[in-house]
Every structure is written in C-alpha cells, then in structure tokens.
Specification:
The complex is a heterodimer of chains A (272) and B (236).
Chain A: H1 2-44, H2 51-88, H3 92-95, H4 102-135, H5 140-161, H6 165-197, H7 202-231, H8 239-267
Chain B: E1 3-13, E2 18-28, E3 32-36, H1 43-51, E4 58-63, E5 66-67, H2 70-73, E6 76-79, H3 91-101, H4 107-116, H5 130-142, E7 148-152, H6 160-172, E8 179-184, H7 187-190, E9 196-201, E10 204-210, H8 211-218, H9 222-231
Parallel strand pairs in B: 3-8, 3-9, 6-7, 7-8
Antiparallel strand pairs in B: 1-2, 1-4, 4-5, 9-10
Helix pairs in contact in B: 4-5, 5-6
The chains are: A mainly alpha (272), B alpha/beta (236).
C-alpha cells in the first residue's frame, strides 16, 4: 500500500518536475549558445556584431540564469502546495480515508520531496555545466588535464579532511540528504501547524511557524557549537567528524519535526 | 444480527462546541440507516469519526469490532459532501486510483455505470458539472464491495432528478450484507429507501428505530415525524 501511495505521490508532481528539469537543461544550452555567440562577436570585431543578435543573446543569458535559479524554488513551492492541498483541503478527505497509516502518508511526502529536490539540483548543476562547456571556447585542453587535476584535488581534500575521495563524497551526500530530510520535516510541521491551528491566513501562519522553527534551530545550533568549543577543543575534531555531526543534527531536527506532525495529522486533524 | 459499527460513550468536542455527547449506538449489518437531523446536529461529525477523519475526545467507536485505522478504512466506503479528488485528474485516473487502493473495487461495474451516465473516462474532473462530479464520486464509492458505506449528504445540493438517480444507484448497487449509513436533512427524499433511522439533535439520539414499524405505529411518515419531533426542540 505504501508503494502505491508513493507511486501516486510521484505521479502527481512528476509532470511539473519534468518540465522544470527540461527548462533548466534547455536554458542551460541556450545560455551557453548565447555566451558563445557573444564571445565570438567580441573576438571577431564590430563588423561581425549584429546589434539585434547581441541584445537577444544578452537577454537569453539573463533569462537562462533567472530560470535556472528559479527552478528549485518553483519546485519547492509546488511540493509545499501539493502537501497542503492533498492533506488539508478537500483532497484530504480522500487522503486520510485511504487504508494507510499516518507514517505512510508523511513518509511519501518526505521521500518524494527529497528525490525531486535532488533531481532538480542535478538538473541545475548539469545546466550550469552545459552553459559553461557550450559557452566557453578553448576548453579542448581541459579534458586532457581533467583526470590529473581531479586526482590532485581529491589528494588535497584527503590531506585536509582525513578521508579519501569515496568517503568525502559519501559524507557530502549524507549531509545533503539529511539536510533535505530535515528541511522537508520542518516544512511539513510548519504547514500542518498553519493549516490546523489557523482558521484564516493559514499560509501566513505556516510561514511564521517556519520562521520560528528555523530561529529555534539557529539558537540550538549556536548553543551546541558554543558548548562544544568549551567542552572539546574544536581543532581536535576532524572535518569528517564535523560533517557527520552536521548530518546527525539535521536528522535530529527532522525527527523533532516529524513526530509532532504525525501527532497533528492523526490526533488533531479537523478538515474544513 | 451482527453489528457493523458500534459506539460507546462517543463524544466529540470542538473548541467551542460539544458536537457529540456520549453517543452509544450500534448499527446492524445489512441495513440502510438514515442519520437524520437538522444542521449542526452532529451528523457529519459522526460520519467523519467513523471514516477516521476525526479522533473522538471521549469514548470509543469500532467497525466490525476493530478500532478505526487502515484495516477499517479498507472495508469502509466513504462519500463526503464535497468533491475530494484532485481537479486535474481524469475520470480514468480516479478509477485507477480506487483500483490501486481498494481490493474490493469493481472497476467493470464502475465503468458500466459511468457509460450509462454518458461520462467519458478521459474527461478531466474539473470540466464536469457539480452534479456530474457528485455522480462520479457516488459511482466510485458504490462500486466498492465494502462492509459499511458512509454517505454524507449524498443528495444535498443537486436537483430532484439527480437525487432520484443517486438514490436508485444506492439501492441497485446495494449489497444486502453491507450496511449503508446515509446522513441527510432531506428526509422526504430519502425515507423510501431507509430500513432504520436515527434522529440526531445536538449530538444526542432523540429517537431511533425501524422505519416501517415507526410509520405503522405513528401513522406518520418519517418526514412528518421529524418535523414533529424537532419542532418541539429548542434552537430548531
């Protein structure tokens, strides 16, 4: 039943995710093409510079940057809207009468949120790379030097942070994923509180709760760091330990938000 | 006779209001029961509690002897008083959805009923009229072979012809071993299909019984009896 719920949750947002990823990649290519034209026009001199094409290229570059930057934000807003609509509006009458439990309902939101945010982040990264590779000429030597350069980079990292390439990548992924999970849970709790506590201005209240929860996280983080610096010498902690603690911190934040959300949707649900 | 739904001392309090007040009742298997009362009497609250959309503040409610949860939701077919599907879904997607989640869903029956109504499966839900949306939802709900059907105001807000269609659909798809609980304040329309009735007022049962026996005993229709009972009550 959980698999079916997950399937339907993905289906509900997959279309928009596909459009946003395609927009990212498309504008990455377009932006790269525009940059290449501008560079060529500058190199070859004014007689080859078509004023209209130049203006168009500049506009395309600016649009590409805005679209790529906005895609992640748009997806986040869509996911939040999907969570709110499917749980706290008329659609909630269907969701909460399905033969599934509260944990399954919440976990589908967390999993789809994390997977789709990772997908859009990858799309954004690839589109930026595309823009660079397409737009910047003279990269022919880059690929020849790339393997040696990458090896030197990761060797420096290993000396600095104490783990090898694989370890660093895994730690980085762990921090990123735990951060996404934690942030998903914070958003779920904020939206749930806003939807169930307020009769009017639910979105405003959800934003307020979101702000308050992040304030609390900031205060606790600073307090935690301060107590660490007094207790254990910070310099004795390796970077890998710091990364690990960051990941665990985000998971703890996630748990601290997840269980109250579960309580709200199972014991305090009152749809309009 | 087996009991499908049972409540003991069931209470539901909202912030400023006691919607249900220590309600104790049993719904028998295989009956069409009318939950009748004026606006604000607690009908929708009771249905929502049975459907698992609310948690009682006091008392208990069980379905086939089990507490409300995924197991009871699998055997309860619930029709709310509003459209509850995403408006972007097509009718076919709604059928897929029900087929995925409910093992007792009879897709062939649903498609037959929709075809009889002239509703295209590729129609988007938002393009259908309000009455047609309600019929689609009713078809989906009644195409399940559930043990308990909870229909919250199924004929409110539609024209008389649509009301007749809805009631005929309920009767013709009625599994004699299942129980149907219909909540409504349109007594005269629905009383012809009822086996039993419960009059609810401010969260309390003021009268209940077998519909035919009560009509014989009182010489009145349920609609007339309802008007008589509730005329005497304050704030009605």
């Amino acid at each position: 039943m959980f698999a079916k719920l997950l399937k339907h949750e993905f289906k509900a947002t997959a279309g928009m995710l596909g459009i946003l990823c395609a927009a990212c990649l498309g504008f990455g290519l377009l932006g790269g093409g525009a940059i290449r034209y501008l560079a060529w026009a500058e190199e070859t001199g004014p007689r080859n510079d078509d004023g209209l094409l130049t203006i168009l290229s500049v506009l395309i570059c600016v649009t590409a940057v805005i679209v790529i930057a906005a895609c992640s934000i748009i997806l986040l807003l869509l996911l939040v809207n999907r969570f709110y609509k499917s749980r706290f509006t008329d659609e909630g009458y269907l969701t909460f009468t399905l033969p599934v439990n509260g944990h399954q309902i919440l976990m589908t939101t967390v999993i789809t949120g994390v997977v789709e945010m990772v997908a859009i982040s990858l799309a954004v990264a690839v589109s930026i790379l595309l823009m660079g590779f397409v737009g910047i000429s003279g990269l022919e030597g880059f690929w020849e030097e790339f393997p040696a350069g990458a090896a030197r980079f990761f060797e420096m990292l290993r000396e600095a942070i104490g783990v090898g390439v694989v370890g660093y990548v895994l730690l980085g992924i762990l921090v990123a994923l735990s951060g996404l999970v934690g942030e998903c849970c914070v958003i779920m709790l904020s939206v749930s509180l806003g939807a169930l506590v307020a009769k009017k201005h639910k979105i405003l209240l959800a934003l307020l709760f979101y702000y308050l929860i992040h304030m609390a996280i900031s205060v606790l983080s600073v307090g935690g760091l301060a107590s660490l610096s007094f207790g254990v010498a910070m310099e004795s902690m390796s970077y890998s330990m710091v990364l690990l603690m960051t990941a665990l911190g985000w998971l703890a934040i996630g748990a601290a938000c997840y269980f109250p959300t579960h309580y709200l949707i199972t014991r305090r649900l009152n749809l309009p | 006779m087996e009991t499908v739904l049972s409540t003991v001392g069931l209470s539901m309090r909202y912030t400023n209001k006691l919607a249900l007040d220590k309600l104790t009742l049993d719904l028998p298997q295989g009956k069409i029961v009318g939950l009748l009362g004026p606006n604000g009497s607690g009908k929708t609250t009771f249905i929502k509690l049975a459907a698992g959309l609310l948690t009682p503040t006091e008392g208990s409610i069980t379905i086939c002897g089990q507490s409300i949860g995924p197991t009871t939701k699998a055997i309860v077919s619930y029709l709310p008083d509003r459209p509850y599907f995403s408006r972007q879904m097509t009718v076919a997607q709604q059928l897929d959805f029900f087929q995925d989640f409910y093992a007792d869903f009879d897709r062939t029956r649903a498609e037959t009923m929709l075809e009889a109504l002239g509703i295209r499966l590729n129609a988007k839900f938002r393009t259908l009229s309000k009455g047609t949306q309600e019929k689609v939802q009713l078809v989906l709900v009644m195409s399940r072979r559930a043990k308990l059907y909870l229909l919250d105001e199924p004929i409110g807000g539609v024209d008389p012809a649509a009301r007749d269609y809805i009631l005929n659909t309920i009767i013709s798809n009625y599994d004699p071993s299942a129980t149907i609980l219909i909540s409504t304040h349109l007594i005269s329309d629905v009383e012809r299909v009822l086996d039993e009735f419960i009059f609810l007022y401010q969260g309390n049962v003021v009268r209940s019984g077998n519909a035919d026996e009560t009509r014989e005993e009182t010489g009145k229709s349920l609609d007339e009896l309802f008007r008589e009972v509730f005329r005497c009550l304050p704030n009605c």
